[in-house]
Amino acid sequence: MPSHSRLIRCPEVLSRLGVSKTHLYRLIDSGAFPRPIPLGRQVVAWLDSEVDSWIEQQRDKRDQLRSA
């Protein structure tokens, strides 16, 4: 894990992805998005580096489709 990674909460993840909370959790349940890290009974967060990597993977998939 890169030393610059930080934990980000759900509102920031939703803002970065531009999806609803329901859609985010569907992605997680299907294994298509990284699982959150539990911080407390009802508190979770994600590593920003994992979120960034997922976004980059989506961009790469898009670019591969364009060049096909």
What does this entry look like structurally?
- The chain has three helices and three strands.
- It has a three-stranded antiparallel sheet with strand order 1-3-2.
- A hairpin with a 5-residue loop joins strand 2 and strand 3.
- The radius of gyration is 13 Å and the shape is globular.
- The chain has one domain.
- By secondary structure, it is mainly alpha-helical.
How far apart, in Å, are the first and last alpha carbons? 33 Å
Report the count of strand segments. 3
Structural class: mainly alpha
Query: Residue-averaged pLDDT, rounded?
Result: 94
| Beta-strand percent range | 5-15%
Low-confidence stretches: none
**How large is the radius of gyration?**
13 Å
- Based on CA inertia axes, which overall geometry fits? globular
Strand order of the largest sheet: 1-3-2
The biggest sheet, with number of strands, parallel, antiparallel or mixed sense and barrel status, is: 3 strands, antiparallel
Number of helices: 3
- What pattern of helices and strands is seen along the backbone? EHHEEH
Number of domains in the coordinates? 1
Fraction of residues in H or I helices: 40-55%
Name the quaternary structure.
Answer: single chain
